Amino acid sequence: MSAPRSLRVWIFALAGMHAVIACAGFFAPYDPAEQDRERPYAPPAKIHFRDARGEFHARPFVYPMHLREGAFDQYAEDTAKPAAIRWFVAGARYHLLGIVPCRVHLFGADGARVSLAGTDGYGRDMLSRLLYGGQISLLAGLLATALALLAGLLIGAAAGYVGGWTDEILMRLAELFLALPWLYLLFALRAFLPLAVTPLEAFFLVVVVIGVVGWARPARLVRGVVLSAKERDYVRAARGFGASNGYLLRRHILPQTSSVLLTQAAILVPQYVLAEVTLSFLGLGVPEPAPSWGNLLASMQQYSVLTSYWWMALPALALTPFFLGYLGLASALQRWADPSNMKAVGTEGWR
Amino acid sequence: MRYLVRRIAHVVVLLFGVSLLTFLFTALAPGKYFDEMRLDPQIAPSRVAALRAEYGLDRPLPVRYARWAGAVLRGSLGYSFAYNAPVSSLLRVRARNTLALAITSTLMAWGLALPLGIWSAEREGRWPDQLITVATGALLILPDLVLALGLLLFAVRTGWFPAGGMASVGAESLPWAARMRDAALHLALPALALVLSTCPMLIRHVRAAFLEVLDSGFLRAAQAHGIPRRRILFRYALRAAANPLISLFGFSLGTLLSGSLIVEVVMSWPGLGPMLLEAILARDLHVVIGGVLLSTVLLACGNLAADLLLYWADPRIRTEGAPS
Amino acid sequence: MTALDSLSFTVAAGSTLAIVGESGSGKSTLALCLACLERPTAGRIEFGGRELTALREPELRAVRPQIQLVFQDPAGSLNPRLTALEIVSEPLMVQGKLTSAERGARARGLLERVGLSPGMAGRAPAEFSGGQRQRLAIARALAIEPRLLILDEALSALDASVQAQIANLLLDLQDSSGFAYVFITHDLRMAARVADAIAVLERGRIVEQGAAEQIVRHPEHAATRALVAATLRFEPPRERAGG
């Protein structure tokens, strides 16, 4: 059965957004770690088409910013040196998708740093950090989802297929995990693991912690599917001509779980991305200098940043289109799996 | 009655299981934990040694658990070395604050969700329904972190609401009415953040539940009998939809508690959340375990309340369990 | 609760025994036990000189292919995600003795044998009619050349005309290959058409058994008489008009 149009639209939109983040190196004008100590907390650059003399230029341009005399966060544009925005410029080296070395960036300015989203306390370009940060946050969410679904599949299949005491024990365990408030459980698990770790270690720690906490609901759903599939006549028939348990599971039973797993994936990915963002925001996730949407937002906890530097909140907006995409995908998937369910809320299993 | 006893027994077993689970977390990396503590200059080496002895790390796991569980049942959740006070007294105040926030938010959220959901269900397909669907959709995609930050920004920019805390400085000296007003102002934004993050899902589920009920045969029969609409709604529809809605209530408590953690931290509401975070960063083991346990107890109590509500609302449950 | 109680019957090679009973008489449990998919709590099943109830799982797995089951609901007994060819060649694949090409050839041969055109090999079960699905199920059952075929209400879900076609197919297959059938049904008339011997099942017990003609012409037990009466309601109109 081919996917209906609405489903394809959501998949296409999400794929597009993920592609932009995956190719962060190309879309980001600068290296995310490149500091500019002379421009801390610079506001977003204004794009001009009309210069100081009132002339119109077809090619947009920006003015370089520099600190006003005597101020530490007030900027003025230097209208004497317009810097044209060019497309496909050569800039800092990066690895496209982590493999191909490249130097081409989507855009850049001649002779000035154009920070479309402002800079942070170290003068690092926020747009670049936003794009690279998305790589970490999204990847963490995706990997954690994969882990949780894999664990849920294995445990749910075991409980459903073997039955008996195995089933009882595993389902009681699942109930236990579901009885704890989710974020508290996450924090507790994080608490007992070392805090001072490198960004890479922290990344894997976060993925494992979130994934391990999330196996229970997928496991229950998989178990339900396996229980009903086990009783099907074609499974009995296959046993009748000598099929082993492994074959039955592989060929007949587990494929039935695919639609449940897909829908769960669409629901879990945004939740887990948010979990990583929350952990990093609070300092329990990916630490500086590696950018993650969470630790980019962390500076908002400082009063001065909160009141004066509004552009530091932009990473919060980055989450929104992804959430929208995944919510739409989840609704479309649920409707595809069960077209008669007109009253599907679209949030089954949300949070 | 047997139903109630079964539910309470279930909660007890659950709490036992949770305590076991939380305890096992500590057994995950105790050695490493103490190594980190030893490196921390703020903690005296004698305290590390004392804690090690207290843990009895050389004893087998079941013995350690038994000693710990016994202490917990006696009401002692351990000692916080960061605050130099017993954990239970620290958490008691915090738990009360979290409860205040949680209960207020729950009441407000359901107070909004029920009428809006019902209204939406009654006017299915027409503009009120579509408006509500769009609004809930828009709110659903805003994560609670973003909502909390947004409201904080709003408070700071407009100055209409305080930007954190539970009471203003010197509030104790104010007369009662002014103190209430002050407390309400402080509670407003955190509660609003929680309401905005949980309400959309509630509204959609209420709407779905009522759509099912409004479609059913016995309601049409009541209409045909000429019973006025309002009466139908409240006496019949609500009763019929009560079952799934009460289960929803139990389920939403978990998300509310999780949400309250982040809201409390962002908006500086002195509840369990900020305490838990501090404890994790300070490696204050007992506070972390105590906080997790307490939050689970709160959730379990909330679910028990939901079960009681179900028992009262659904006569089938009262008669179930009678000897056959 | 006992589903079946002290049954005793034999089936000779190449012959058909029909077990007839109302719903709830324990027929499906019987089918599963005979196919070695369920274990009886007591009693013996002898097959080809071996005592099946004494065998353990690995040995049973070797015996099962010789006894194949065709189920009542063709939709439930065929995996909707596989094609017809895959369904029929699956038993061969599980047994693992042939190459992929040989399996394909055999499967196509089987499809032809049950009256399905090879052009339908690539279709999914959903695209077949009820009768065609049952043919597919029979083809699958025949794939590994069983000695005994158990048909558990295999015709009951089909239209009357289709029932006749499939019944004829079954008889033809039996003539050419010589396997035995255990034909479980609630329709005594169909049983009489297809079977050599009939056993009547009531509430888990066999209350009467003997040659097919004998049972239908001269039913003795009340249950048998009830079954006979049930079939009499469907007399074709022309016989009544002549009276």
3D architecture notes:
The complex is a heterotrimer of chains A (351), B (324) and C (243). Chain A contains 13 helices and 6 strands. The C terminus of chain A is likely disordered. By secondary structure, chain B is mainly α. In chain B, 79% of the residues lie in helices and 1% in strands. In chain B, α5 packs across α8, α7 packs across α10 and α10 runs parallel beside α11. Chain B is globular, with a radius of gyration of 24 Å. With 243 residues, chain C is α/β, with parallel strands linked by helices. Chain C has a domain of 146 residues: Rossmann fold. In chain C, the strands form 2 sheets. Chain C has a 6-stranded mixed β-sheet with strand order 4-5-6-1-7-8, with helices on both faces. At the A-B interface, α4, α5, α10, α12 and α13 of A face α1, α2, α7, α8 and α10 of B.
What brief labels describe this structure?
heterotrimer; A: about 350 residues; alpha+beta; 4-stranded antiparallel beta sheet; two-stranded antiparallel sheet; 6 strands; about 10% strand; B: about 325 residues; mainly alpha
A few lines on this structure:
The complex is a heterotrimer of chains A (351), B (324) and C (243). Chain A is of the alpha+beta class and 351 residues long.
What secondary-structure arrangement, pairings included, does this model have?
The complex is a heterotrimer of chains A (351), B (324) and C (243).
Chain A: H1 5-22, H2 24-27, E1 48-50, E2 56-62, E3 65-67, E4 75-77, E5 83-96, E6 100-109, H3 126-162, H4 164-179, H5 182-191, H6 199-213, H7 216-230, H8 233-240, H9 245-253, H10 258-281, H11 293-297, H12 303-308, H13 314-337
Antiparallel strand pairs in A: 1-2, 2-5, 3-4, 5-6
Chain B: H1 2-28, H2 30-39, H3 45-55, H4 61-73, E1 79-80, E2 85-86, H5 87-122, H6 127-140, H7 144-158, H8 176-215, H9 217-224, H10 229-266, H11 272-281, H12 285-313, H13 315-319
Helix pairs in contact in B: 1-12, 5-6, 5-8, 5-10, 5-12, 6-8, 7-8, 7-10, 8-10, 10-11, 10-12, 11-12
Chain C: E1 16-21, H1 27-34, E2 46-47, E3 50-51, H2 57-63, E4 67-70, H3 74-77, H4 84-95, H5 100-113, H6 130-142, E5 148-152, H7 160-177, E6 180-185, H8 188-194, E7 197-202, E8 205-211, H9 212-217, H10 222-232, H11 237-241
Parallel strand pairs in C: 1-6, 1-7, 4-5, 5-6
Antiparallel strand pairs in C: 2-3, 7-8
Helix pairs in contact in C: 4-5, 4-6, 5-6
